[in-house]
């Protein structure tokens, strides 16, 4: 019997970088709760962006944000994985040197920080596309709050840079591809799958009592932690290979279809 559901957001519940969450998802959270099934939103988005999407039911769900670096329930922090500040001081100048890239540094509770001079288009994507709380600063390395994620965005696609970034920074950070244009750097304690395992342990729920949905490489840990795992239609082939099932596409509301069958 399924007792816990966890789903990615971008590319799985909503088109990448939008806030067009289908009303039926909100309704399903309530219907699942009545059946004793708990819901978890798991995303690379920061907490504030997820809060805005699920504000009507936020007290009823678990939130795995920043690719597992910050976990909360009903607004209460359950887990935070802080990046090593010394390593961040080396990472940020490297990212600044990448041609055609923008970046943001995220905290658990104070939103994300973008350096002054970033394009208006990039800031608009963060604020209006992802619903993030964004603060412009002269230098993200001067932010006093602990950083939990540094995210690199390349409008032309992040793929050509991932190999070099991975080789350079894997000794220090977990690097996760989060969509076609994003690469996230987090501490090795941060992972959607590890975060889901923490929730399972907290609730006494087994892996085989868990269902999960995802579409990209940063969802692999989430899917591996669920006995009933679904790649959304249109997911990367690596994700489809990892998942137990393949659901319908985002455009055809694949997650909604599976949850309605479950109910």
Question: Can you characterise this structure?
Answer:
This protein is an alpha/beta fold and 263 residues long. It is 32% helix and 26% strand. The strands form two sheets. The protein has an eight-stranded mixed beta sheet, with helices on both faces. It has a six-stranded mixed beta sheet with strand order 8-7-6-9-11-10, sandwiched between helices. β13 (228-233), α8 (237-242) and β14 form a beta-alpha-beta unit.
Q: Any descriptors?
A:
single chain, 263 residues, alpha/beta, Rossmann fold, Hypothetical Protein, Haloacid Dehalogenase-like Hydrolase, Chain: A, domain 2, 2 domains, eight-stranded mixed sheet, six-stranded mixed sheet, 9 helices
Short overview:
This protein has 263 residues and is α/β, with parallel strands linked by helices.
């Amino acid at each position: 019997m399924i007792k816990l559901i966890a789903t990615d957001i971008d590319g799985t519940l909503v088109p990448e970088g939008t806030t067009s969450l289908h009303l039926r998802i909100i309704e399903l959270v309530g219907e699942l709760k009545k059946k004793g099934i708990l819901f978890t939103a798991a995303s690379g988005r920061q907490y504030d962006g997820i809060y805005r999407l699920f504000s009507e039911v936020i007290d009823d769900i678990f939130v795995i944000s920043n690719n597992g670096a910050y976990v909360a329930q009903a607004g209460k922090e359950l887990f935070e994985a802080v990046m090593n500040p010394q390593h961040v001081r080396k990472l940020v100048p490297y990212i600044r040197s990448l041609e055609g890239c923008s970046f943001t540094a995220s905290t658990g509770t104070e939103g994300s920080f973008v350096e002054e001079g970033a394009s208006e288009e990039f800031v608009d994507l963060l604020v209006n596309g992802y619903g993030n709380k964004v603060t412009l600063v002269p230098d993200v390395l001067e932010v006093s709050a602990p950083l939990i994620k540094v995210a690199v965005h390349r409008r032309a696609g992040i793929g050509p840079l991932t190999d070099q970034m991975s080789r350079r920074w894997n000794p220090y950070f977990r690097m996760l591809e989060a969509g076609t244009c994003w690469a996230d750097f987090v501490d090795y304690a941060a992972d959607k799958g590890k975060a889901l395992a923490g929730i399972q342990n907290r609730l006494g729920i087994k892996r085989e009592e868990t269902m999960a949905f995802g579409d990209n490489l940063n969802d692999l840990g989430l899917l591996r932690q669920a006995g009933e795992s679904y790649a959304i239609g249109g997911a990367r082939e690596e994700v489809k290979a990892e998942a137990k099932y393949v659901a319908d596409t985002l455009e055809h509301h694949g997650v909604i279809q599976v949850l309605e069958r479950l109910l």
